[in-house]
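Long-time lurker, first post. I've been practising inverse folding by hand and with some scripts of my own, and I keep getting stuck on stretches where the structure tokens seem ambiguous. Below is the full token string for one chain I'm working on. Before anyone asks, I'm not after the true native sequence, just a reasonable design that respects the backbone. If someone could post their per-position residues I'd love to compare against what I wrote down in my notebook.
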């Protein structure tokens, strides 16, 4: 597979993975014999499409155009039924002479000069000629349309109508003026805004120039030309997704939203954020700005992934009859997108994998060999080792939507590993970064692959990623230097913030005697006002992203879709938010997280968070009793506890075992992170 970086402004040459069609030469008019003509007419009957009958008045010379459907034809005799038959026309039509019939397919026109046999208000009967002329083909085919609503906005007035015929360069719509509207309000010197929609919703919105129009007070036809050849879907980014030419080319199969025909086009190149199709220039059906729903990218006849895409540009391929049509992925299923990015990362490096099925014994060997599971950590998980085995079997063999892992592996041996969990509604948390001691490069490779995955993914709604986060020990040199270093470089807590938690395993204590002698304590379900007060405290203390990332803002109070996603994947996730108050005043907010044992070796995914808003009057004794009440309420004898801020633990004299930094990055600043990562890789001498 060859790598191709996509540049929209460049005029592309013919892609190596696609056989180009040469530019057609203009041929003289061709002739159809009678047998060929009969086949064309029968095809029209099969589609129930009309031909155009040209009549001329014998006395006055005025022309009359009528549509008629050809009936099944066996020989030179042809019957055509009028599309709008009228019995009253029996006499009227006798004074008209037949000039010719016209059959058009949107690209070529066939003019037939038959002999009239009979004509009445119901039908026309003719004798076909031995030969007829077929015109030069149009440069671009016109496609007839049905069921597509059209509207334009001009001078603050909205005109409704429908699409008549269409191609990506020009299209024709018919509009009606509803009183007091007047077509005089539509100026032809300035573009109008056009909206097209079918039964599935809006398929195109864009500005168009009026090329020509018919005349009429209540109804008019307008031929329109789009004013833009490019329609960017997302904001400009420095680190765009790399596009690859794949051999063989996958196919994109979809129903065209205007013509309703099934399109099957080759993918010239693909990235995790979009792709380019090859469309014959004479067809021209993909209009920049058009939304294509339920598009299937077929890797083989059976393996495919469904997505929604939007056309963003059309670029002719030099010395070819192909147009390169660029599309941006608007949305794609979580797992389908993972498969796509995995395929592309394999194209870049066959030894790196995204969420591949892993031999579990090899994985456990890796964790022990790297020292990631050190003796103290193993002692804490040994009693639940079978539960850990079961959890990791689901994580690494069943492809759950809430987890991703990135592995560098050679000949079946894992050299580097990084993983991430969707632990909050819009936040994926990194964990389990490790590499074999003599394979330092592998640790950087999996970090790079994970970053590229996020770069390709974060614009997709189905990815549910607004923040990338991670916990790390403050005595761990690499994350302190790397993640902490990025926070220092940005010097903007709304771009990247680092907040420190005190961590220890809390052992619940039984209550002995009256403990509320210093005031009335309350442990209750958190309210919106509690989270507003928490937010005010945190903005003053840190000003970072932590509360947004961990769903502890007022706006996130009623969000609970992630727990449903965990349940679908066979996992448990519960979040219980509580408020600690004394005499009605908020002292702290608690988030009790209940997940499967083993999602994280340090059990940080299963940790309870205590966010202390006001430590005055909240003594060590009060702390122990309130947290003991939490333990009793949720049936937890001993549980991991993260406490923020550290200053509260120090002032209350509460010891902690470790300090964990919680790093959060806003994906809005991902370009800055990618630039920092590339510089970091260069300094670390990793290619």
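-- Answer (accepted) --
I ran through it position by position. Result:
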């Amino acid at each position: 597979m060859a790598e191709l970086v996509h540049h929209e402004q460049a005029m592309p040459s013919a892609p190596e993975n696609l056989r180009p069609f040469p530019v057609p030469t203009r041929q003289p008019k061709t002739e159809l014999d009678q047998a060929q003509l009969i086949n064309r007419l029968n095809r029209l009957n099969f589609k129930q499409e009309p031909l155009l009958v040209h009549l001329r008045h014998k006395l006055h010379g005025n022309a009359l155009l009528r549509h008629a459907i050809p009936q099944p034809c066996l020989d030179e005799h042809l019957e055509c039924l009028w599309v709008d038959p009228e019995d009253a026309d029996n006499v009227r039509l006798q004074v008209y002479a037949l000039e010719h019939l016209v059959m058009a397919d949107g690209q070529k026109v066939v003019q037939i000069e038959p002999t009239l046999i009979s004509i009445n208000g119901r039908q026309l009967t003719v004798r076909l000629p031995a030969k007829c002329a077929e015109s030069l083909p149009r440069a671009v085919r016109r496609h007839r349309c049905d069921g597509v609503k059209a509207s334009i906005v001009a001078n603050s007035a909205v005109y409704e109508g429908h699409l008549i015929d269409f191609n990506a360069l020009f299209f024709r719509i018919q509009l009606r003026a509803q009183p007091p509207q007047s077509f005089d309000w539509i100026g032809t010197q300035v573009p109008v805004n056009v909206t097209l929609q079918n039964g599935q919703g809006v398929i195109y919105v864009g500005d168009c120039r009026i090329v020509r129009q018919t005349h009429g007070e209540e109804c008019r036809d307008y031929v329109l030309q789009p004013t833009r050849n490019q329609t960017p879907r997302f904001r400009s980014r420095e680190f765009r997704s790399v596009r690859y030419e794949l051999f063989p080319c996958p196919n994109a199969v979809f129903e065209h939203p205007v013509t309703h025909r099934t399109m099957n086009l080759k993918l010239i190149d693909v990235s995790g954020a979009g792709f380019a199709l090859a469309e014959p220039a004479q067809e021209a059906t993909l209009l920049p700005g058009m939304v294509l729903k339920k598009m299937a990218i077929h890797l083989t006849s059976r393996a495919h992934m469904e997505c929604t895409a939007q056309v963003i540009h059309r670029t002719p391929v030099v010395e070819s009859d192909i147009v390169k049509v660029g599309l941006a992925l608007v949305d794609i299923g979580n797992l389908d997108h993972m498969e796509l990015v995995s395929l592309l990362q394999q194209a870049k490096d066959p030894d790196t994998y995204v969420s591949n099925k892993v031999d579990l014994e090899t994985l456990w060997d890796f964790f022990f060999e790297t020292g990631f599971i050190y003796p103290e950590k193993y002692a804490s998980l040994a009693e639940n080792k079978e539960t850990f085995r079961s959890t990791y079997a689901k994580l690494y063999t069943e492809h759950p939507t809430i987890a991703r892992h990135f592995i560098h592996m050679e000949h079946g041996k894992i050299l580097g590993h990084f993983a991430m969990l969707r632990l909050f509604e819009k936040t994926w948390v990194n964990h389990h970064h490790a590499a074999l001691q003599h394979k330092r490069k592998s640790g950087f490779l999996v970090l790079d692959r994970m970053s590229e995955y996020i770069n390709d993914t974060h614009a997709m709604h189905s990815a549910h990623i607004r923040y990338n986060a991670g916990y790390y020990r403050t005595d761990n040199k690499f994350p302190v230097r790397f993640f902490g270093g990025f926070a220092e470089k940005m010097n903007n807590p709304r771009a990247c913030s680092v907040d420190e938690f005190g961590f220890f395993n809390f052992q619940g204590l039984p209550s002995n005697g009256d403990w509320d002698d210093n005031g009335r304590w309350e442990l209750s379900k958190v309210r919106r006002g509690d989270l507003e007060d928490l937010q005010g405290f945190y903005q003053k203390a840190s000003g970072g992203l932590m509360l947004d990332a961990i769903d502890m803002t007022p706006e996130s109070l009623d969000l609970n879709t992630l727990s449903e996603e965990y349940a679908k994947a066979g996992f448990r996730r519960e979040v219980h938010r509580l408020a600690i108050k004394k005499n009605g005043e908020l002292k702290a907010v608690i988030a009790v997280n209940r997940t499967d044992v083993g999602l994280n070796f340090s059990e940080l995914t299963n940790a309870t968070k205590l966010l202390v808003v006001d430590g005055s009057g909240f003594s060590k004794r009060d702390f122990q009793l309130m947290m003991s009440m939490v333990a009793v309420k949720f049936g937890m004898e001993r549980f991991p506890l993260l406490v923020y801020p550290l200053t509260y633990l120090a002032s209350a004299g509460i010891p902690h075992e470790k300090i964990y930094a919680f790093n959060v990055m806003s994906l809005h600043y991902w370009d800055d992170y990618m630039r920092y990562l590339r510089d970091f890789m260069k300094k670390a001498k990793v290619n």
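A couple of notes from the structure itself: The first strand starts at residue 2 and ends at 4. The chain has four domains: 1-20+139-330, 30-134, 338-476+667-683, 496-666. Happy to go over any region you disagree with.
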